[in-house]
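Researcher: I'd like a structural prediction for the single chain below. Treat it as a standalone chain; there are no partners to consider.
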Amino acid sequence: MGFCSIDICGKLLLISSAVIILLSGCSGTKGVEKKAPPKLLTEGLKLYQDGKYTMAVESLKLVMEEYPLSEEAVNAELLLADSYYGNEEHEDAAAYYTNFVSLHPKHPKAQYAQFQKGMSYFRQVSTVDRDQVATKKALIAFQDIISRYPAGHYADKSKEMILFLRKRLAEREFYIGNFYFKSKNYKGALARFAEILKEYPDAGLADKTLYYIGESYMKLGEKELARDVFSNLISNYPDSPFVNTARGRLKGI
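Model: Treating it as a single chain, here is the predicted structure.
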């Protein structure tokens, strides 16, 4: 009586297996419930608004990883860039803004992302005695806004940023030129000063640059060339603080 037939035992085994599978499935669903993308995005937004940028990044990355094809993932991508920017992680911010513009060029916020890309590079701009890689990247980003969205919301601000960045690049050239001048490498100095007049005539350094070009010519014994440059300075920039010295140089030629 304690034994069952092969058929009955086989059926019992199948039933017990089915029960085990069912129970294991039920126990799995009782774990951490997967949050819907809108809820995850809302949580990420709230964390961002509260200034909890690191936590916001974690929440927003989860949206992108678990729901990569959702609309929320697109919004999370941009908010993720904003979170990095808010946390002053500007390299990561620039990378995510760049990716957003590349993947979603027609998105309503693509223009904003492009501007923020420029700002992310701008926040990394160094002093004139350092390399200006970030300055050049920022300049390109803002120039792209003028090219793509000439009448857009960020066009005027981008133009202001372009002027600032061009001046910074001109100042970098002058810094190097002045270093050569002080080192008595006058030909090297002339090359740098000439580059300023050629590439950055709107940077506000023309009068100062002309003066140092004149001085470089004087050091090289090229007095006639120096005379022309000093005369140019006096004629075109009469209010320059370098005019009086330039006049003195002319009297001595």
